[in-house]
Amino acid sequence: MKQLRQRALIAACGLFAMLALGPPSAEAADKIQLTIANGIAPTIPTNWWFQDFIGPKLKEYSKGQIEPNVQVNGTLCSEHKCVEQAKLGQIDIGSVSAGNIGAFGPTFDILNLPYIFKDDASAEKLINGWLGDELAKRAEAEMGLHVIAIIPSYSFRNVDNSKREIRVPSDMKGIKFRVTKTAVESALIHGWGGIPVPYDWDQLYGGLQTGIVNGMYIPDAYVAAQRFYEVTKYITETGGGWNAHIIFMGKKRYDGLPVAAKQVIDKIGAEIKASSFRIDREWMDRQNKLLQGKVQVYNPTSSELQLWYAGAPPAWAVMKGRYDSKLVRRALSEQGQAQLIKKLEAAGAL
Length: 350
Hints:
alpha/beta; D-Maltodextrin-Binding Protein, domain 2; 6-stranded mixed β-sheet; globular
């Protein structure tokens, strides 16, 4: 009997509290919290997109109904771990390089193929056109990811090292180069004569200091942005690999959002798409100026460049089966790359 009276008293207190406080407001009930995270340093434009654009715009365009929790610079995840955490529902929006997303499937491997893009203008036209749309569709089916935007990240990769000036591929012999988690980059570095070493991005500076690796294949602006010029003094302007970042959500998370929230995310994605190449150029110009006087840059002659280009078809051949030949042919044809197509065919890559 005593227990019944106690339960009745507790229930009554709860009822009085509810009457005093009133029901939760519709506004509070409708709030959506989105955690957006990346492993990118503040000196990289992807970080700016997250912290200064996506975060504030989520709140602004939703009129406060979306509450963004912005975690950048590796506080919650780094590179491919952001993908894992998005798929597990631990974060909502993340980013990853096209090189490191390859662990989850081959959709974006086409972006890593050396010399797939003739120049930045060609990349912009294709990424913001049919190719980007096709990759987004395939990422949903293959990876369970909803692509918000595919953006450039400091343009084309070049060969950097701490040992000596490199003019032609054979000069790379015996030098250990850090590579991303994509087979094409390992094949390219190996074909050029270097030693490819898969190595985590967030440990790269220390790896260069200790000699675990002697160089890397990254855009020049990254050398400035990460202060790699302190441990790598030589850059060779080879081009080849184009550096992309993918901004994404888990498909299940995106599909489960209210229509209004999806519209906000889609609007943000469209705005990123419209200006990402311009923003990237502006950031790249600023970073490259910081390299002046800090590194020794070598620009290969026309005949030397042909030796670098010759390393592309064998690297493509290694990746055959991980990219759609029809997409590749269309992309190269639209850029007037008939000669490259012939060389790829001769190498068995197409």
